[in-house]
Amino acid sequence: MDRDHTKPIPAYYCCYLLRSTKKPACLYIGSTPHPARRLAQHNGESKGGARRTHHDDKRPWEMVLTVEGFPSRVAALQFEWAWQNPKRARQITANYPPDHSAPRPKGRGSRRSMNAHLEDLHTLLRATPFAHWPLQVRFFASDVHQTWRALADRVQGFLPDHLEVIVDGNCAGAPLPATGEQEKVKGVTGLKVTYTHMQDYLDKAIFLLEDSEDCRCGVCAVPLVPDGELVVVCSQDNCSCTSHLLCLSKKFLEAADEPDRLVPISGACPGCGKTVPWSLMMQELTLRNRGDNKAQAKRKRNKASITSHGTEVASGQRSAVVKETDNEHALMDGLPDDISLDENWTESLEMDLDSKNISESQSQPIPTRTEIIIEDSDCEEIYTLD
Q: Could you tell me which residues belong to the region Disordered (predicted)?
């Protein structure tokens, strides 16, 4: 059993591309749950970071783009491995026709240029299973985004309709819709990497499901049993719709009319009618069911305390929200996130990626409470033009 299956969906996890500001031909691919901290490690501002970036002639590094929205740590590592190893990743090699005129590169890391990395990224985002994940690409460097746009105009194949491209940082682009503008963070330090933004949503779900006698599925209208069933809650602030996981998933998939899709991307809530992202609901569900018990108990005690003091809102509204500190949110994970991967981890991952179903991770023993979850990868490859 993969240890990811016993933890909540991460608050944030991304793959990223670094570029040396002193030697722009030097590029680096990695993954992390905390880009700002990871970039500081690469630049020697704090301990950690892969040894391959510990060279003063290449520092400082800049993070030029991120790929966000991975449903698990393993998913991000799978994507990272494929991006680092384009000659060995079947998602990329399958894109080369048999009569491809250009000779295939030899040796690991031979596709080193920015153009090559972006071309491989474009291919991965179109390939199964990555094309079915709720990913988004965020650009922080204007010239890299311009290269991406030129690439997208000439390559064959279109990116999935649901995939978002966010023009951020110093990129100059056309104004985004209101929802897109809200996604801009200006720099890596502005990325939301904790569960803080989930707190109101999580509190609402816990409050609604505590009074489960009145909860019915918004799809099949059958009474819900939160303690014995997987129940999802609409993410819209003013909606109290609750549903069986399978009922809502089936409804979303039928509306999407994509026979090959197994997991929905989004759908219209049966209660409020507004579009809700499936990944956000799954993140809340796993956080509610798998999050740190102490954090959940504290949240419930705070809620009970508020109610006893008469601050609970009228029936049908959730109780007032007690803000928790970032440290309290860290308890939901219950594990450190600054430990690097063993450098031999790719051997087992490569076997997994060569299997017929990339989404099925290799079998691992169930971890004890003393085990740690490994967050950052130290096996990233540094690429330098000769």
A: 37-58, 90-112, 291-320
